[in-house]
Amino acid sequence: VPANVSPTRLPVNIAGKLRIAASKKIFSRTANMRTLEEVRATLQIAKLKEEDLQPVTHCLTFGSNVTSGDYCLMELDDTLCKHIEAGKSLIIRGDKDEHAVLCSEDETYDLKMADTSNLLLFVPGCKTPDLLPHSPAHPQLVHAQIWGCSNSYWELRRQRPKLKKLKKLLSESPYSGPPYGTQQEVPQQKYTMEDLLGRIQASREEIEAHLHKIHACEIDGHWRMLDFDYELKLLGHVTQLVDSESWSFSRVPLTVCLEELVPLEPREMIEHCLNCYGRRFNTEDGEVMYALDEDKVCSATAQMLLQNAIKFNLAEFQEVWRQSVPEGMNTRLDQLRGLTLVDCSSKPETISLLRVEDLPEDTLERFSALFGIREKWTQDDIEPYIQDLCGEKQTVGALLTKHARSSMQNGRKVFNSRRPIAS
């Protein structure tokens, strides 16, 4: 009922479309409250039995300034309800040209407007039967006023955070080390955590986790990605020191590293490199140690070798790679899952750089890009490139069944696109 309609009693829909009497609510737009006798008379007109209803009936009246645009409804699950009840915030994020998402401290939700054929009413103080203390012995009326109404609400659905943009922003100002002498760093766009929270469609915890994953660090209050060559330079300093001191890769002392390498690079950068490529732990006497991760060191070395080559002879690459990693570390192709693509069909076999982080975030666009690169994939080959697309309780197999078509080729199961791929 429009807010500008003069106060008159609303007729009850006796055809039962609203069935308002069955849910213990009788609408009224009059200052004169309905009596119990009037409610009973209305039930007779609607052909409803009083004994089939709850003994407490809510009589609703519209307030004088009721409009449908004053309120928005949002459907929350138990987790988000507890989040709000604990006094925490939910934040809507996204640039003007992006679809808005809702973020808690650690999760991201898609926001979608859902329409409903039933008019939703905002009634402060209206109690459902489970909220009533106990059923009264005799029928009772409870008068409540409607503050607003709506025929739509925001529906939330858990989704993967959109983090591809994070690396793109930080790539605008990569850190290549401190300036030397009178040299000054070229002014570039830099981002604080608050800047990133305003631009990236993800929760704070998800953003912080991804910053760690891409080896970003905070420098003078701004988050920066290290230039890859500079990052390898830092790693080279560490591995050369390990070799010269004959340390085990599983026991690299932080204090000695800093004493030896600070004359070459800033203390914070040396420690950042150790955090990126190693696991920090304390010995029994409290000394801080790092265990270098063989897979991460070998993967970074492989990326360095492949970054300027379109394709590399696989056998030759493996030999050069083996000679390039620190002595005592062992290279394996499974260290490069999600980083490189091996073509076993070519003669000779080749390897090329294909990083999962460079592929589209959208599921359909990701599959289109992958099938544009290679027409047919085995599950083992494509898995590292779609694993991150899997939702909660979703497997890679289920994702492939939905977005790809399977067939047998030379006795092996392969997958190709369900839709034509533009050339």
Automatic annotation (TrEMBL):
Residues annotated as transmembrane: none
Entry keywords, A to Z: DNA replication
InterPro entries (UniProt xref): Dcc1
GO BP, sorted A to Z: DNA replication; maintenance of mitotic sister chromatid cohesion
Pfam family, any one: Dcc1
Assigned GO CC terms: chromatin; chromosome, centromeric region; Ctf18 RFC-like complex
Superkingdom in the source lineage: Eukaryota
Family designation: Belongs to the DCC1 family.
Protein name: Sister chromatid cohesion protein DCC1
